[in-house]
Structures are given as structure tokens and as C-alpha cells.
């Protein structure tokens, strides 16, 4: 085996870890390998062909970022290793195009710039307004998550995705995380339909308008010792005040510079109105990019300033050379490789646009199909609802028909019953009419009877007055009879006493006893008759005196054949006989008078009871007449008490009354 092959096999490998903004890559390369080898591996791995914008950077012992020389070995550039033995490198964009959307050809190149700008804004290397920060964040969310979907992207999904600069949050301290999220979500919802490449391109369009985009700043001092900022970008070299990185004090276009050099920490820039054709560290400038100035001045202006250290001067010179070369390259005809890349980019763009259009059509068709499906489902639901409604209505109609049939039967039965009731009602109406006619006749008859009863009442009132007059007359007669009786008794007592005095002899008494006469002086005579008269006067309704004066002695005597009176002869004195006859006659008259008075009292009571009965019957008939007048049908025509007219007795005078009884 050849010796050089064995030596190659025995060569050592080194581990390199490359950190990009998208992923971390690890390679094992020969320790004598150059940086260009590792750079090509990275570009081949990620598919990057626009390699002139990128470079490999590392952090030196002073914690400063430096760029590796591609034509030198890795181990010759004083790179620190990590604790695990890896060489740590960073794959970043070293140079920036003038117009991002036009000069960046590949999508992967735009994606790498997008990630780097996103990191620079978050770390405050790039300063922008709060509105621009919100808009950039919304495009970044669109590039990462796609279209906004409220069902998926619910509140709180951006908590870990929002990386706003701290100065923006400090400027609006009242804004909470949810409020920032709401603002970004509102912008995010407006980017519907943008793909990842389109969203990243829109992001780059906004970033390239920022004043600090693509500028590498270095801390310098002028010859007077004033601290300033030196800015190197794709178009020019600018000088900034220490307090302002956005508005340059002076700006030198690459076409206006002839040479750059440094000596230690002193950096010299030569400016001329006519670019040099050869010599100088800036390289040869083609005559076709000569300034339009007509005046040619060979005198060069020299600009000097001081950097912190020679390494910084070396880095500034390297960046100036690279930006100047790209500046000149953009103004030349594109190389064959660039033309191929642009053609492939156009083809890829057309292909992707076709795919996008196809996907859009398919998406539209899918959406249309989904919409049609949803409409059909809604129509189907509506038809189902309508069908259910119709079925319900059909069932209801069937139930209604059954109910109607039942109601028809019931109505027919009711009509029959009503017809029967109508017939009955007609018969009842005829009966009622007949009863009404009968009641009217009865009413007329009752009216006539009422008129007769009024006449009878008048006659009864007249009879009552006649009875009262008769009663008064009887009282007077009774009183007169009592007086006459008292006078008669008195006279009889006087005559008796005289007879006793005249015949106060034994013979006379014997004669009286013999003849059967006795004259007891103190014996009451006709006491029962007088008491009967008093009772008749008290019981009658005629106001008669209740107490009639009674005599304790009665001069009359009653003949008693069975009595035996000793000492009286059969034959007596004529005067005595006459006296006895008178006494007997008086007693008979009193008895007859008492009987007549008792008879009249009884007749009066009977008449009074008859009158009361007639008045009561009249009162009852008057009440029934009142009810009949209020409602004709209230009482049947054959109901109610009827007093026969022949039962009413109205005596015209006392003679008729006595004759009747």
C-alpha cells in the first residue's frame, strides 16, 4: 500500500458543530481541512446555492464575533473548543443584498435571512416601531402556523411565540401579554391564504425598509477623539453620531471610494469623484459605472478614524471588500450560475404557483363541496323537519278526522235529541200557552173575585161598625137592666120588710109555713144567672165591663114544692100571695134576660170567628194573587187554596144575625 494512503488513513478527525437559525449541524472533518470544506458541506446539506451572502463566524476569547477565512484551515484560526471537544461555529449571513425581494433567488436563502432578521429584532440589534413589530410578528406566525383557524388557534397559543423587543414592551407598560396577543392575532387573521414563502417575503419587504437593516456597526473615534459609529452596508459606508444609529452624519457610496487601508487601529478611507481603474484594496472598478460628474478632480480626500484594536480594523476591511465586490457584481451581467438559479427559481416559482393555483382550486372546490354538503345537510334537515312536521300534521289531521267523525256522530245524535227536544218544547210551549191562557183567565177571574172581596171587605167593615154599635147598645141595655134589677131588688126588700112588720104575728108565720112559702132574707137569689151575664160580657170581643156589681142578698124567692115550712097556714094573706107571685115573676124575667144575653154573646163569638176565618182566607188569596201577578208560571192554575163563595157569611143587621142563628 502506498505510504501517502496510509498517512491519510492515520490522519485525525475533528468534530465541528455548526449552529444555524434553523437547526444545528455536526460534521467530522479532517483536522487539516479548510473552512471552505466545512462551508460547502453546510451549503450542500441545507441546499443553499447563494453562498456569497453567508459565512462562518466564531466567538473569540474576547467574546467578540469574527468571521473565518474560507481559504485557511480551521485549526489555524485560533478557534476555541467546547467542553465536549466540538468546535463551535455559526452559519450566518455576512453580507446583505440591496433589495431583498429581488436579489434573493432561492427560498432557502430568503428563509435564512428571515430567521436572522427575526433574531436580530428580538435581540434589539434591529430597531423598529411598535406597529412594525406587531405586523412582523403576525407574518412570522403566518409563516409558522399557516392560516388562522379560530377553532385551533384559541387564546393563549401565542404565549410562547411572541418575542417582542424589550424596548417596545417598556414603551407600553400598560399592555399585558393577552393584549399583545390580541393585537397580533387580529393582524394574523388578515393574512389568510399566504404560504410560508409569501409570508417570509412580506416579512423581508418590511425589514428592508428599516434604517438599520443590513448595517454592521463598529465603534470608532475620529482624529479629535470623538466617539462615533461606523456603519458598513451593501450600498455605502456611513458615519453616525454616538447617540443615533439611524440618521448618518456622512455617507460614502461605494462608487465614491477609491481605497481603504488600515495600520494598527487606524483606518483610512480615500474618496474620489472618479473611481480608480486599478490598484487599491477596493479592487478595480469598471469604467461603465463612472460617476455622472463632468468635472474630473484627481485630488483624493482622505478620511481617517481609529478603531478599538487591529482585529476590528481587519474585520471592517474584510466587510468593506465583500460588500464592494457584491456591489460591483450586481452591476455586471449575471453569471451563468446565477442565470441558471434564476431560471430554476422562476420555474420553481411557476411550478409552485401552479401547484398553489391547483391547490387553491381544489381548496375552493373542497370548500364549495363542503358548503354544498352543508347546504344539502341543512336542506336535508329542513326536509326532515318538514317531513316530521308533515307527519305530525298528518297524524293530527287523522286524529282530527277521527274527532270530526266522532263529533259528527255526536252532532247527529245531538240533532236528533234536539229535534226531540224541539218537539217536546213545542208541546211544552203549547201547554205553557194553554196554561198562560188559563192563568190569564184565572187572573181575570181572580181580579173579579178581588173586586168582589173588596166589596165584601167594605160590607164587613160596615158590619163591624154595626156590631160595635149593637155592642154599645147591648152594654147600655145591660147596664139599664142591672140598674132596674137593683131598683127592683131594693123595692122588693123594702116591701118584704114591710110585709114582715105588718104580719109579725104567730098566725101569719104559721100561715106562711103552711102554704109552703119561705122568704129567707139573706139567701142570694139568681146568683148564677148574674154571674153568667158577667162571663158572657167578659168573653165577648165587645168591650163590656168585666165586673158587674152583684148583690149579696136576693129578695126573690123560688117556690119549692118539696120544702116544708112549719108554722105557715095553707091559706095565706092576699098581700103575701101577691108578693110571692111578683117575686116568682121577677125571677123568671131575669132568667130569660140572662139566657138572651148569653145567646147573643155566643152568636157574637161565632160571628167573630167566622169573620176572622174569612179575613184569613182573603189574606191568603191576596198573597197568591200577588205571586200570580209577579210570575204567571210560578203557581199552577189548579193550586192554591180557594175559598168557596158560599162559605162567606155577611149578616146585614142584627135581625138577620138572630134569624140565622
CATH class of the largest domain: Mainly Alpha
Mean pLDDT: 76
The CATH architecture of the largest domain comes to Up-down Bundle
Uncertain regions: pLDDT < 50 for 5+ in a row?
1-8, 274-298, 505-583, 632-661
Number of helices: 14
What is the straight-line distance between the termini? 192 Å
Query: What would you call the shape?
Result: rod-shaped
Helix share bin: 40-55%
Tally of separate domains: 3
Number of strands: 12
Largest sheet properties:
5 strands, mixed
Query: Assembly state here?
Result: single chain
CATH topology grouping of the largest domain: Acyl-CoA Binding Protein
- In terms of DSSP E residues, the strand content is 5-15%
Order of helices and strands: HEEHEEEHHHHHHEEEEEEEHHHHHH
Protein name: Merlin-like
Domain FERM: 14-331
Organism: Phallusia mammillata
InterPro entries: Band_41_domain (IPR019749), ERM (IPR011174), ERM_helical (IPR046810), Ez/rad/moesin-like (IPR000798), FERM/acyl-CoA-bd_prot_sf (IPR014352), FERM_2 (IPR035963), FERM_central (IPR019748), FERM_domain (IPR000299)
